[in-house]
């Protein structure tokens, strides 16, 4: 279990609304913000029309009532859109707080336990490459994303993307060191095991050879007796 392993490092994405506006993860925030701007513009247009008509043409009472009704609808739409925008921001902020990337001695774990629980383990020996991606916008805000590639054949499972990483270069240095040090230890252990297997095989061959020699001597007692006589005569 993960609880029994020693945690070497941990990353939690940092929510920044300005940064999210330029990220794929901020699509819902951008949509809600764009919808709000559209409704605000419509509200101003309807308000301007209602005011101009009440001043220019006082006889069209029905049209003024319609414009006022539309103005109320626009204000309601603005309020609903504002609530949606705030709810989207709060929801995404809470979700980021429940996402963790935990690094142990020989493996890493991705876990999201906000609503629907999602957990994924990746062993360091299966990691092929770690990459940092940063746009100009990322570098201005000192953010970035990290991509961890694995040896999986399935494209859906081929790696992991860590979004919204603050100061990604420092995280990259630590993670890269952890992965390489673990892989080097595993390679040393593998080499040692391989050498031990080779030595064991050689010892087995020598034992078999000695056993065969002793068996041959036991199968030829007459020849052994003659050789002993020769040694005595000498």
Tag the structure with descriptive keywords.
single chain, 234 residues, alpha+beta, 4-stranded antiparallel β-sheet, 3-stranded antiparallel β-sheet, 7 strands, 61% helix
Question: What would your notes on this structure say?
Answer:
By secondary structure, the chain is an alpha+beta fold. The chain contains six helices and seven strands; from the N terminus they run βαααββββαββαα. The protein has helices spanning 17-20, 27-56, 61-97, 136-141, 168-219, 221-233, and strands spanning 9-11, 99-103, 107-112, 118-123, 127-133, 143-150, 160-166. Strands 1-2-3-4 form a four-stranded antiparallel β-sheet. A three-stranded antiparallel β-sheet has the order 5-6-7. A hairpin with a 3-residue loop joins strand 2 and strand 3 (107-112). Helix 2 (27-56) runs antiparallel to helix 3. The longest helix has 52 residues, at 168-219. The two termini are 74 Å apart.
User: Helix-strand pattern, N to C?
Assistant: EHHHEEEEHEEHH
Q: Please give the count of helices.
A: 6
Rounded mean pLDDT is 76
Poorly predicted regions: 54-64
Category from helices, strands and their pairing: alpha+beta
Q: Level of helix content? A: 55-70%
Number of strands: 7
Strand order of the largest sheet: 1-2-3-4
Assembly state of the chains shown: single chain
What profile does the largest beta sheet have?
Answer: 4 strands, antiparallel
Determine the strand fraction and express it as a percent band: 15-25%
